[in-house]
Specification:
Blueprint: H1 6-24, E1 41-46, E2 56-59, E3 66-71, E4 74-79, E5 85-87, E6 90-97, E7 104-111, E8 114-115, E9 127-132, E10 150-151, H2 152-156, E11 164-172, E12 179-188, E13 201-209, E14 218-229, E15 232-248, E16 251-260, E17 267-273, H3 274-288, H4 296-300, E18 303-313, E19 325-337, E20 346-358, E21 366-383, E22 389-406, H5 407-436
Helix pairs in contact: 1-5
Amino acid sequence: MYRLKYSHLSILVGLVLILSIPLTLGYSMPTVPQCPLNSSVVLMITTQPLLPSGNMIVSYGPPGPWTVVKYGDLEYLLQINMWNLASIGYGNETLTFNNATGEICFSSMIGNVTLISPSGGVWGYPGIYLVGVFPGGQVNIRNPLLPLPLTVNDLVNGSYSNRLIALNYSMWIPDDEPMDWSYDIWLTTSPAPSASLNHGAELMIWLYTTTPVFSWADTGIKVNIPVTVNGSLINETFDIHVDCYHGYDSTYWTYIAFVPLNGGFKNGYVSISLKPFLQYMVKVFPEICPSLWSSQGEVSKLWMDVITLGSEYGNNQWVNYPGWGVIAWRLYEASVLIPGLTQATSTTTTTTTVTATVTTTVTSPTLVTSTSLVTETSTLIETTSSTTTLVTTLTKLTTVTSTVTIIRQAINEAVVWVVLVIVIVVAVALVAVRRIL
């Protein structure tokens, strides 16, 4: 009978330990910047039991809560809007508003999701209604500088053709997280709120994306459109994507998206004019979708009902951790501007200290803590075609402390302990057998 020698046993134990090493490596989950829970308004989707305070609106499932907030003479509708999620396994999403500074913050770290439409890569569109009313909706977000609904012709050839939309923002996204940061603009054949989406149009203007081309709608058309970034005028190249029959069931509309060829702008003060995007839409629709749009004049009669701003994201094929959605952004300013009007110089100082914990019950959790201190002072200058110069000075001090539970590593460590126990038991049994023999 063959007897297992101690040298053989040592080799066996060594091989088991070597094979178990990859189980403990793996990628650690990113440390996501968290939004301040002491903000004036806090919207949250969470699977964890909470005791909401007076400033917090909590939903324990998708699509998530919404509310209207005001900042000075302006108002916005905040909405987490995870329209394609059926459920969330763990984690949370938070959307906050600070009524002292006007800052809006979004942070997401969710996992083990189930989708309403699994074939769709988009999980949702958390963000804000900037101005207008969604077709069929009841909440009208008013801005005196852009009193939607207005026709495309009003915005291209009329008295509202000189309007600019300006954003000051910063993004945080893992490199392999599919997402876009975009305006989503809805147009219908009659003005909202009584309008229907059917036979209308959806215009998206992407300011930043990690997925610059989606083949199912790419027309191959590339256009250069001027965009002002941190005071500098840039002729940005956009791919035009069109889907003639976009929608669901018997309701459809024509979808058009302007996607920056180089990925766009992850941070900064970015100002665009709606006019050139609308002009290209008017030109392209009859060329790409002649069965729906017989002439440019027909497109010009569409009513622009609402301008929303947010981030489409989420994909079950995320490379490092399938089924996770991880993203964060801060919006410091969202404005409609008229060139030639004197704009006041504003200085905003924001100091935020946040400690947030996202945990899931696992065996032997491992924690990673990240603390960062960033001090940034920037002067942003935009000069329009008139002699008036818009100056915005932003001073920002941000301290963020985040603690997250690294679930995969915790599970891997548990697996290693199980393997080691098995090895010890086998070794003891082999020694006992040897003694008997």
